[in-house]
Predict the structure of DOD-type homing endonuclease domain-containing protein.
Amino acid sequence: MAYVLGFFAADGSMLKNSRGAHFIEFHITDREVLVNIKKALASNHKIAKQGRRKGHSALFRIQIGSKEMFGDLRKFGFTQAKSKKMRLPKIPGKYLGDFVRGYFDGDGCVYFKKHKVKDRKRMRWVFSSRFTSGSRGFLLDLHGALRKIVNGGFIMAKKKQQKVSGHELVFSHRDSLALFKFMYNNGTCNHFLKRKYRLFKRAVETLYGVRS
């Protein structure tokens, strides 16, 4: 369930309509994640495919009507307008890896590519991982929660047309390796987005010979 909560923090929303009905929504371009969420929640709700805009991938969505779940999310501090005000909920340490992995599957990425070293002919690998959020406070909280496993990391603003559109928590080589182990080798890793895991795994195996 911590995985589901983490993914909700990244790509979920809460809705209360005019008739007082309460809904939870999850939406992402990777249908695989919603299948994992259905399994975790033992849900039989339908995964809907939304119309694809030109130049964009298809978006998948699952909507769950549940006043109880809506209330539980409120207790964790989530609101209907959470994107810029969200803070990290209190997660027991043994479940933090699952929560972080869920958030990473929604709003995280790995960069692993060879670049030419300046003023030299040889190429070198550039490896980093990052989390994105509209809430700088959330990323500050997350960075603090990860202090036991990482030594560095920094938060930077994302800008679009000279305006801040969001924030990123960025980790370089060694901290990304520690993050990989924390998210995927924690003994409760049942749900994860395969394409992100494979790229992350390729990076740590190539650079450090670490196999998972």
